[in-house]
Amino acid sequence: MSSGQDEKPESGVTEYDSKKSFKDKLIWLGDHFRNEWQLYVMLAPTIIWFLVFLYKPMYGLQIAFKDYSIFRGVAASPWVGWEHFHTLFSNDQFIRAFWNTIKISALNLLFGFPAPILLALMFNEILHVTYKRVAQTIVYLPHFISTVIIAGIVTTAFSPTAGVVNTIMGWFGLDSIYFLTRPEWFRPIFVGTGIWQEAGFGSIVFLAAIAGVNPSLYESAVVDGASRWQMMWKITLPCILPTIIIMLIIRIGNIMEVSFEMIILLYQPATYITADVVNTWVYRQGLESGQYDIAAAAGLFNAVVAFVLVMVANTLSRRYVRTSLW
Amino acid sequence: MAVGMNLYSRGDKLFALATSVLIGLFTVATFYPFIYIAAVSFSGGFAAAAGKVVLTPVDSTLAAYKYILTQPKFWISYGNTFIYTIGGTIMSLLIIIPGAYALSRPQLMGRRFWNLFVAFTLWFNAGLIPFFLNMRDLNLLDSYFGIIIGFAVNAFNLILLRNFFESLPQSFQEAARMDGANDFQILWKVYIPLSKPAIATITLFCIVSRWNGFFWAMVLLQSEEKIPLQVFLRHTIAFLSDDHEFTATLSSQPYSAESVTAAIIVCSIIPVLIVYPFIQKYFEKGILLGGVKE
Questions:
Q1: pTM to 2 decimals?
Q2: Measured by CB atoms within 10 angstroms of the end CB, which terminus of chain A is less buried, N or C?
C-alpha cells in the first residue's frame, strides 16, 4: 500500500538517503506524508500536550533568574541573574530543607529499600498457597490508598489523647507523647508509614525476579542436600541481584523526590526542623506566600540535582548491569 | 517451585514456619490500621476522643456516619471525584493510545527524537511553580477541564504502552496492511484488542491516581463545589481538629472529631475495596510490563 512497503518490505522503513538531491528529498517527504499522515495525526495530541503542559513550564523557569511580577508576566519581567540563588544559599531554611531531603531519602533507602526484598524472599518460602494469596492481597492494598487517607490514619493513630499508639503505651505505664509535634519522631513515623504503604507492593518486582530463577538450580541443590535457608542465600539472592541493583539505582536517581504531599499533610511548624524538604519549602514560599521567582529558583536547583542523579544512575546501570534504564 | 514438600528436612520446616509467622505479623500489622479506623468510626464520640478504642467499637453508634452522610458537601465532592476519575481516565486513554502507537511505528520520522522528547520529561521537570503559573496563564485554575487535561498524560504510562506495542509481532501490522487497512484501523482492530492487558493496566494506573489525586486539586481548585473527595477529606480533618467549639461540645454530641474523621476515611476507602479484587490480577502483571527496558 505505501511506497515504503514496496522499497523495503521486511522492515517497512523508508530509508532516508542523504545523497539524494534537494528535489528528490522533497518528493520523498511528500510521498512520506501522503502515505503516513495518519501517524502524525495520532502523535499530534501527545506532542501538543507535552509542549503545553511540560515544556512551556520549562520556558517559564526563566523566572528563577528574573524579578518576576504577575502583572508583567514571564517574558517582560527584568533579569536579575543569579540573585535568587545567592539569596537561597544564604537562607538557613532552604539549606535545612535541602539536607532534610537528603536525610529523609537516605533513611528511606536504608530501611525502605530492603523491606520489599525481605518480604519477597519470605513470600517465596511460604508453602500454603491460600495463606500466601491472602497475605499478598492484604499487603498490596495500602499502595492504592490515597495520601490524604494515610495521613488521616496516622494523625488519628498517633493523636495524644485519642490515638491507639498512646493508649497501648499507657498499658505499659509509658507517658503519652504528642508524636506529630515532636521533631525527633517525624522521620521515624514518615519512613515507617512509607514502608507500611509500599513494601508489599514493592515486593511484586522481586517476586517476579524470583519466579524467573531457573528451577533446575533448586533441583540440583536439593540433590546435594541443601537446606531452604542455604538455597535462599546461595541461589535465590544471587539470581535476583541484577533486579536488586537496578531497583537500587532507580532509587538513587530519585533521591530528591521525597513524597512531599505526605509531608505537607503530616508536618506542622513545630516539626519543620526535621520535616521540611525542598518541595514543601517551595510550596510554602511560592504557592502560599507568592514569592514565585525565588521558589522557582529553589525548584530549579532541586530539578538540576535530580537530573544529575538520574544521569549518574543511568550511567552506573549501563556500566554494571549492562542495561540502560531508559 | 519444583521442590516437593516431602523433601523438606526438619530445619526447613522450622524455617518455613518462621517465615509464615513473620509474614503473618507483617500482614496483621498492615491490616490493623484499617480495622482500628473502622472501629473508631463506629464508636461513641467520647470513647473515640479518649482513646478507648483499640480493636472493636466502643459504645457502638452510627452517629459519625449520620453526621457526614447528611453533609451536602460530602456528596458533591464524591460526585466530583467521579467526574475527575472518569473524565480524566478517558482523556488519558484518548491521548496515550494513539500517541504510543505512533511512537512504536518505525516509519515515524524523527522517532528517536520524539521518544527522547517524551522521556526527557521523566528526567527533568520544571517543578511546582512554573507548572502552576502555566496553568494560571492558560486560565485553567479552578476548572474541571484544567484538572482533567492538565494531568492527562503520564510519560511513564506512555512509554509502557509504546513498549508493549513494539513487542507485538510485525507480521500483524504487515498482514493488516496487505488487506488495505490504514493506521487508524490497524490500531483499532488489531493493536487495541491484542493489548487488552497493557491497556487495562494503564487504565488502572490512571483511575487510581485520579481517585487519590489531592495536591494539585488542592492548589488549583478554589471553589468548594468543585473540589474532589480527597480535598474535602483534608478540609474536614483540618477543620475538625482545629475547631475548638466542636471539641467543647463534645460531651453533648454522640460523635467526635476522631470518629467523624474515621467515618470519612471508611467512606472513601469502600469504593477502592470493592474494585480491588478485580484489579489485582492486572496490576501484578502490569507492574512487570513497566519493567526495565533493554
A1: 0.89
A2: N
For B70-118, how does the pLDDT look when each residue is reduced to its tens digit (9 = 90+)?
A: 999 999 999 999 999 999 999 999 999 999 999 999 989 999 999 999 9
- Written as one string, the DSSP assignment of B90-109 is HHHHHHHHHHHHHHH-TTST
Interface test with B, best of A8, A46, A235 (most B CBs within 10 A): A46
Q: Which residues are CB-contacts of A77 (< 8 A; sequence separation ≥ 6)?
A: A63, A66, A67, A68, A69, A293
- A189 in reach of chain B (CB within 8 A): no
Q: What is the CATH number of domain B72-224?
A: 1.10.3720.10
Please name the residues between 62 and 91 in chain B that touch chain A, using a CB distance below 8 Å: none
Asked if A4 lies within 8 A of B107 by C-beta distance, the reply is: yes
* B5 touches A: beta carbon within 8 Å: yes
Give the ipTM.
0.90
Q: Do B20 and A219 touch (CB under 8 A)?
A: no
CATH 3.30.70.100 assigned to B5-70+231-268 = no
Interface check B6 vs A, CB under 8 A: no
A39 touches chain B (CB under 8 A): yes
Q: How far is CA B173 from the centre of its chain?
A: 34
Q: Do residues B236 and A148 touch, judged by C-beta distance below 8 A? A: no
For chain A, domains (ranges, CATH) are 3-58 (no CATH), 86-145+198-320 (1.10.3720.10)
Residue B258 CA to residue B281 CA, distance in Å, equals: 35
pLDDT in tens, A255-295: 888 889 999 999 999 999 999 999 999 999 999 999 999 99
**From-to residues of CATH 1.10.3720.10 in chain B:** 5-70+231-268, 72-224
pLDDT for A23 beyond 80: yes
Classify burial at A212, counting beta carbons within 10 Å of its beta carbon; exposed 0-12, middle 13-18, buried 19 or more: exposed
